[in-house]
Amino acid sequence: MNIKISNIAKLPTKYGDFKIQSFKENDKEHLVIFKEPLLNDVLLRIHSECLTGDALGSLKCDCQAQLHHALKLISKKNGMIIYLRQEGRGIGLFNKVNAYELQDRGFNTIEANHQLGFETDLRNYEIVEYILNYYKIKKINLITNNPSKIKSLEKFEVLHRIPSITPKNQYNLNYLEIKKESLGHFL
Ligand SMILES: Nc1nc2c(ncn2[C@@H]2O[C@H](COP(=O)(O)OP(=O)(O)OP(=O)(O)O)[C@@H](O)[C@H]2O)c(=O)[nH]1
Ligand SMILES: [Zn+2]
């Protein structure tokens, strides 16, 4: 892995004061947002980029609500968000827009990926291992509903899972249902 690591900077937000650092993996500029001191068992959210949700407030998914929930929790209890640049479960923004157009025509989130020739989920979490080792983190309390994220941390001790439950609306109902029924999310 060819990783470049930035300096650490301050990031004041409406949820509190954090620090940020970037880990550049080839063309992917991941981000770590954290509040110190990091405890022995670290509160951690591994968040996958969703520009439409995180930045634009799209109601089609739960990403922005999950990100803000994690920022709030970490501002109170310290911990870290690893923000991974794997947009669209790894298919990228351009392809996600095409997937959204297929969803406009009635395909669900998984079917749309398959229609475009992609697997259901192309994400990988190798860089997470690198970042956690860099910060000497061994014990984790993970904020997620996704069982595959817990599995990806098998080299670490995941002490607890903190659910990330967000409001339902008419646009994300089917998306959340598919996450529960087909992807096995704890919802
Ligand atoms: N391909 C595709 N990706 C999507 C779609 N909606 C959201 N995403 C991406 O899904 C990723 C978030 O994954 P989710 O499956 O919602 O949740 P998760 O992060 O695996 O699980 P949690 O930790 O519980 O939030 C982000 O990268 C989003 O860009 C969609 O309809 N199609
Ligand atoms: Zn999203």
UniProtKB/TrEMBL annotation:
Keywords: GTP-binding, Hydrolase, Metal-binding, Nucleotide-binding, Riboflavin biosynthesis, Zinc. GTP binds at R45, I46, H47, S48, E49, Q66, E87, G88, R89, T109, T144, K149. GO terms for cellular component: cytosol. InterPro entries: GTP_cyclohydro_II, RibA, RibA-like_sf. Its cofactor is Zn(2+). It catalyses: GTP + 4 H2O = 2,5-diamino-6-hydroxy-4-(5-phosphoribosylamino)-pyrimidine + formate + 2 phosphate + 3 H(+). GO terms for molecular function: GTP binding; GTP cyclohydrolase II activity; zinc ion binding. Binds 1 zinc ion per subunit. GO terms for biological process: riboflavin biosynthetic process. Zn(2+) binds at C50, C61, C63. It holds the Pfam family GTP_cyclohydro2. Belongs to the GTP cyclohydrolase II family. This is GTP cyclohydrolase-2. It comes from Malaciobacter halophilus. The gene is ribA.
